[in-house]
Amino acid sequence: MDRVIVFDTTLRDGEQxxxxxxxxxxxxxxxxxxxxxxxxxxxxxxxAASPIVVHSVAEIARHVxxxxxxxxxxxxxxxxxxxxxxxxxAEAPRIHVFLATSMLHLEHKLRMTPEAAVVATADAVRRAKxxxxxxxxxxxDATRSDWDFLVKVFxxxxxxxxxxxxxxxxxxxxxxxxxxxxxxxLRERVDGAENVVFSVHxxxxxxxxxxxxxxxIGAGARQVECTINGIGERAGNCSLEEVVVGLHVRKxxxxxETRFDATKLQAISxxxxxxxxxxxxxxxxxxxxxxxxxxxxxxxxxxxKHKGTYEIIDPKSVGVRQxxxxxSRNSGRHAVLAHARDIxxxxxxxxxxxxxxxxxxxxxxxxxxxxxxxxxxxxEATGASLVRPPGRLEEVPSxxxxxxxxxxxxxxxxxxxx
Length: 418
Ligand code: MN
Description:
The structure is a single chain. With 418 residues, this protein is of the alpha/beta class. It folds into two domains: 2-276, Alpha-Beta Barrel (TIM Barrel); 293-417, no CATH class. It has helices spanning 24-36, 51-63, 77-87, 103-110, 114-131, 147-159, 176-189, 209-218, 240-249, 251-254, 265-276, 297-305, 333-343, 349-363, 371-382, 409-412, and strands at 2-3, 5-8, 41-45, 68-73, 93-100, 135-140, 164-169, 197-202, 223-226, 256-257, 293-294, 324-325. Strand 2 (5-8), helix 1 and strand 3 (41-45) form a beta-alpha-beta unit. Helix 7 packs parallel to helix 8 and helix 14 runs antiparallel to helix 15 (371-382). The protein binds manganese (II) ion (MN). Manganese (II) ion (MN) is lined by residues 13, 168, 170, 201, 203, 233.
């Protein structure tokens, strides 16, 4: 099966989220977690941006093993030299050179002619190539560039030795169909296309970052640039967790695989959220607090009967311990009873009815019903007192306990979520 290279840019484009600047220690920790999860390439920063980034990229290059480490550079000699200076101790260094190719950027931002851009591309790739064999070239704003001009620029890059050609949708403007066509167009026409990896880099301005990346992979792109939690400039980048898990869950459609260990996703996501002070939205795919939580009675009942009814991803496969049910007035009696039984209550028919009626009345005006509230309602109905507090099973010795063997049963349905 074809493999897609996962290029993480959490520490470069991700850190360009407003307010997300991270300490060098936090950056190193995230790089090491990504390497442990077998990400292929870690873009560690843009060294020309600041002396602290130079130091941080160098530290990451020195310590990370098992993943390539990339640094970003404009086409200027000083940028490329700074990138190499930061990368030189890396086990597998990559210099990533970029130049804008849309007329909008060339005319208004760079004040450069298209001809000069082709020359600058070739010169920059050649300079980077003197330092290391792994050179990526990005045509910034590619999706708003003239396609035939892109062929010229990318051909100049491959002829100068570029090994990866990145086709960024810098402003999140493209659509899945259009992006797939562009990738196919370039793969057919760029000099030496068969010997380079085409890469995609997408943004979420129209909510299409992941969809666009998947479409481009379908058209033959074999590197995807993405960030943990989808953080990045403006509305963010393609989310690593969504693209990696999406490729895996629907490999029957995509026919590609990655090397990434998805069981590490939850931990990395939380680390990035803490380091950037950007909490993950609760309904975020894969890593959101609600991604494996079920609220309605019909769904909870289905899940109790067969996990496949309302989950397409095994939570453990993405580092989430288990499915959770949220108990509220939307919950069904099956889930409410199952949870009370898991906590340890035994109901006769009369107590069961009393408990369910009390639950229904109590839940009417609540957002959710917590474990403690559920225990109180069950105690009032059964007259029984509980032998141990719910949800703290790790602290309770299990020997001689009639719940042994159901260690996390009570946590399996966590109710207090506000
Ligand atoms: Mn970007």
